[in-house]
Amino acid sequence: MLVIDSVQASYSGIRALKGVSLRVEAGEMVALIGPNGAGKSTLLNCISGVVPLTHGSIQLGDRPIHGESAWNISRQGLQQVPEGRQVWPEMTVLENLQLGATALRGRASTYSLDRIFELFPILAQRQKQLAGSLSGGQQQMLAIGRALMGSPRLLLLDEPSLGLAPLVVKQVFDALVSLNRDGLTILLVEQNSKLALSTTHRAYVIEQGKIVHEGLSSQLQDDPQVIAHYLGHSTGG
Prior knowledge:
four-stranded antiparallel beta sheet, six-stranded mixed beta sheet
């Protein structure tokens, strides 16, 4: 589904990625964890076309996507939920969701409004409310719903639990697990490493722009090095 090969990239003049390679197979939920500044967000932004590569390749399905615009990549079924949600605050909840559907461009719709409201009932209750008036957790649900309206083949999520109350985090991750069980492929960057490893099939650990560990999430949870460096506390960035 997604194949990243020897990707290098710079961000704000800093060499952020130094030959990253990873795979996400169709139907998988894969985590990318690591310390603040390791290159996690930069990698997601490279995949979605926001940050250009300086070397390497990225392939979605049977098609190379590196070098394409972010808009063209989104139209091929790759949707990203950015760090900080980035909803349109002066548009209603419903308008934000409808905006997500512009990425379809003739592709069949996979996720209906009813399905999104089933996942996040609070959005149905507040669909006429301005997005800027929602709580942080509700905005995160809206950002996920907006991405789903584009019928993603692959969903990228950047720090979905950041700044959210534990109960809201559970609601969000329950929805992600449900979506994955229904067949949605997910690549998750998450500052809460324990949570990430407990909800994904496989995981990669990135440090200083390089992949330093990879494997089944269940195995990495028991790896002494991973426990010592990444599971003692949450990691961000």
